[in-house]
Design a protein that fits this description.
The protein is an alpha+beta fold and 163 residues long. The protein has three helices and nine strands.
Length: 163
């Protein structure tokens, strides 16, 4: 009986020596915050003084005989971006991949039948890993040759500036 009382007394005394256990809560699905998109700087043709349409992702300009669109999309799906801009997948376009403004650059052209006849377009996508900065042009096929020099001038003027 003495042993039982001794064991009970020890259990009571030792029960207060328990170590505190702390639990931390973390979210295993942390979502990385994307960087602020850069500002696309471009020298517009004089015929594109103000945008005809502005949306959340970009601006549309009507110029002499063609349309110019400047847009920004989340990066990650280059094929989706190209399909959105041109109607064609990455595999359907012959893209030239280079570096420009310190980021990956994809350029290509396409042609397609439109409601008013054949159309020709050109696209440039700058990919900084967070965003796709896109410039695209479209015009009637018979007008494409006269637009080529002006399009190249616009593309040559592109720069990205931190916001």
């Amino acid at each position: 009986m003495k042993k039982l009382l001794l064991v009970l007394a020890l259990m009571i005394l030792l029960s207060g020596c328990a170590e505190d256990v702390f639990e931390t809560i973390g979210d295993p699905n942390d979502i990385a915050v994307m960087a602020t998109p850069a500002t696309v700087l471009v020298e517009l043709p004089s015929s594109a003084a103000s945008p005809v349409m502005e949306g959340a992702s970009g601006k549309l300009y009507f110029c002499d005989g063609y349309e110019l669109m400047i847009e920004t999309f989340d990066a990650g799906d280059l094929d989706g971006t190209l399909r959105n801009l041109t109607g064609f997948s990455k595999d359907d376009l012959q893209l030239m991949e280079t570096k420009r403004c310190g980021v990956s650059c994809y350029e290509g052209t396409w042609s397609a039948a439109g409601d008013t006849g054949d159309q020709v377009g050109r696209v440039m996508v700058l990919n900084d890993g967070n965003y796709h900065y896109c410039i695209s042009f479209i015009t009637a096929a018979d007008n494409a040759a006269s637009c080529a020099v002006e399009w190249q001038s616009v593309l040559d003027s592109i720069a990205l500036a931190e916001s």
